[in-house]
Amino acid sequence: MDETAEGSSNRRSKRDKRPKTEIHPPANTYHYKKDPNSVYVEEEAEVYHNPPLPSNVGDGVPTNQLRGIPPPPDVPRSILPKSGHCRWTFEEATRVLNADFSVSQKLDVADEIFFYRMMERDDVTVISTGLFSKPGFKRTAALDPELWNSKYIGEILHREYHHKIRRFDIVDVEGRSKCVERDAMLSMTAMDYDQYVQKRERVLQGLDTEKAFRYVDHDNITKSFDVETTVLYIIDLDVTTMLPALYTNFKESVRLPGVLPGGAHCMMSAVCNDARPFMGPNLYVSPIIS
Q1: pTM of the predicted model, to two decimals?
Q2: Tens of pLDDT along 213-237?
Q3: Alpha-carbon distance 2 to 15, whole Å?
Q4: Minimal CA–CA distance to 45: which of 65, 63, 64, 71?
């Protein structure tokens, strides 16, 4: 082989050692099964509308291959029960179903079954009223007003700190009042919270001119705020363990106990009490807003 040929061969050999750019074939298009339903059917939707699971971490289905779901089925007024013991209304625009059980002391089976079936649907929001007995209702007790108030909670929990209290401040924005939530939650004893509620009520009624409220937080730091412009909202207070008397009264007063955690219509009824995750009920407490 002459020198020229040998040099050309060496150059080709060096070029061959350079890293090669890999060319991946385009991802296969995912073909969905045809949905035979003209409306959304929860029990079958995953068969026709769920995209495939990614085979590699970081992969996914392109946006243009995600398939939309069909519209939800109608809730025609003709299917609303007409027992006369519950007033049903359905708002098509918001898909909110209102069930007013307060119109009667009696619970009709048709209303109860329809209520449970609508709660199972994820395309309908169910709002119910009247599921707790009023004084004079037969068969069940009524919520005891001597228990369901901030004074009783303060007396029972006393110096127990609660760390999930949302704070809202009423501020002036361009001449209009606006309620703005602060980022951090407050920690306060139940007794201090009751005193705050009572002081805010007196200030709003013009019975107290001193608007500043002072308390000591869990870090033993004294803090203060204006009760007229600050609204404190207790969330996630565990009634079952912290306020057992309220929980007992709650269970005795509910007219459909099967909907409670662990009730006859709850899947947790098949699990023993010690193995159940906590599902409430939780208590949320707010003072008079204005």
Answers
A1: 0.68
A2: 999 999 999 999 999 999 999 999 9
A3: 20
A4: 71
